[in-house]
Design brief:
Rossmann fold, Transcription Regulator spoIIAA, six-stranded parallel beta sheet
Length: about 425
């Protein structure tokens, strides 16, 4: 038996896919390299934007010929679209045998047993006992975490309590739940024993983590003192970001000089409509303090263009913030209404052409900023953690700087997990080229 998992969406979805593959391996499945060789295909889905949701249905359509050639092929849909659509997926896509939500993947053995008995299964209910602190990774799976190359991910919390007006996450992943610190640290130690040199702490709103008296500062401090090369985390919310966290980042060498801090819009009126609960000035103040104590830090962000009623002047304010902060990377999106959200009740009054024009201008500005930043690396020396072989070039390795810039490094005898001093010799697009010192 072979299983193939197609993953869409964020690093939390990637983490969930790794966990699902572990569960399937315990049932006797091997990991398939392609969908064509699999007897079980799971599509792990994202519904934060409309486009990823469309990709899911498109992919399911592509699986129809496989199902016709192999009627015994089992197809499942997991994740946020599964939670959102439920029974609709079975009706809309005849190839689908099972549908399960983000809270249900540890029930895969029971679900697959029902499928083998000839049923089409939908399991998207929240698990019972959704208290504020809960170790939602079952004990038998706690120390069986996955290390990819030299990196590993730990979900320290799940769900979200913010209810940003555009965001579907609280509706598909539920209310926020945090794990106990020692439970997380046990998992981290197990991953380090398996070879992890870099650990990512994950949460929909990672810095609102709180388990009893332990807030995110305590957890980040504890993890950063483990025998690791690097610690990263994503995604924090600006309203929960504190100067204490900035000080900790600056003082602890294992915590990377990289922060993803979603802004979403550069105009206060739009931020209020989005229910972001922070202003542009408070965001800029926190960024300014972080840069003052940690000049090497690079900040990435999320931005939405064309939110209902956004004016041209308000869009220009977003561009002004980009020029001030000089983000290292911007994940930019055209607004699309998501079912069940407050913004979905608003009139989506910005024409598609206007959204596309604004998005193109935003991307063009970020490309300018990025090109200037990348050029600034050339000639300098960076510490690069090698995380894998280059996908196309022989004897070339891929790694990341502390600030999360990708680097290509040629050289024989290089090992995954090795930390190299690399002189940057060039830059192309979002990639740096280097040579070992």
């Amino acid at each position: 038996m072979k299983a193939y998992i197609q993953t869409y969406g964020c690093q939390m979805n990637e983490h969930d896919s790794f966990r699902m593959m572990e569960i399937l391996a315990s049932l006797g499945y091997e990991q398939a390299e392609t969908a064509e060789e699999a007897s079980l295909i799971i599509v792990n889905t994202c519904s934060v934007r409309h486009n990823p949701q469309n990709k899911v249905y498109s992919y399911l359509g592509m699986l129809r010929p496989l199902k016709q050639r192999n009627p015994g092929l089992v197809v499942g849909v997991a994740g946020c679209v599964a939670r959102q659509e439920g029974e609709k997926l079975l009706k809309r896509s005849p190839v689908v045998n099972l549908v399960f939500g983000p809270d249900n993947y540890f029930q895969l053995p029971e679900i697959l047993a029902e499928v083998r008995a000839g049923k089409r299964v939908v399991m998207t209910d929240w698990q019972p006992g959704r208290e504020r602190v809960k170790n939602f990774i079952p004990e038998q799976w706690l120390e069986r975490g996955h290390v990819e190359g030299c990196k590993a991910y730990i979900a320290i919390s799940k769900g979200c309590n913010n209810f940003c007006s555009f965001c579907i996450v609280p509706h598909v992943r539920g209310r926020e739940v945090s794990r106990e610190p020692e439970n997380i640290l046990r998992e981290a130690r197990g991953l380090i024993a398996k070879g992890a040199r870099e650990i990512w702490l994950l949460g929909q709103n990672v810095n609102s983590y709180k388990a009893g008296d332990a807030a995110f500062y305590y957890l980040l401090d504890a993890v950063s003192q483990l025998p690791l090369a690097r610690v990263r985390f994503t995604s924090p919310h600006p309203k929960d970001w504190t100067n204490d966290l900035a000080d900790l980042m600056a003082s602890r060498t294992t915590i990377c000089n990289q922060l993803h801090l979603p802004l979403q819009a550069g105009a206060d009126r739009v931020l209020k409509l989005m229910n972001r609960r922070h202003t542009v000035s408070t965001y800029l103040d926190k960024v300014a303090y972080l840069k003052s104590v940690n000049p090497a830090v690079e900040i990435s962000t999320d931005l939405i263009v064309g939110f209902p009623t956004e004016t041209n002047e308000e869009f220009e304010e977003t561009l002004d913030v980009m020029r001030q902060v000089r983000f290292s990377q911007v994940f930019s999106f055209k607004y699309s209404p998501r079912p069940g959200t407050k913004a979905c009740e608003m009139d989506d009054d910005i024409p598609r052409q206007v959204k596309e024009e604004r998005l193109a201008r935003l991307i063009a500005l970020q490309d300018e900023i990025n090109a200037e930043q990348m050029a600034g690396y050339v000639g300098g020396v960076q510490e690069v953690l090698i995380d894998g072989a280059h996908r196309k070039l022989p004897n070339v390795w891929s790694g990341r700087t502390d600030t999360y810039r990708p680097v290509s490094v040629p050289g024989a005898g290089v090992r995954v997990g090795e930390m190299l001093q690399v002189r940057i010799t060039g830059a192309k697009g979002h990639w740096l080229q280097g040579e070992t010192v």
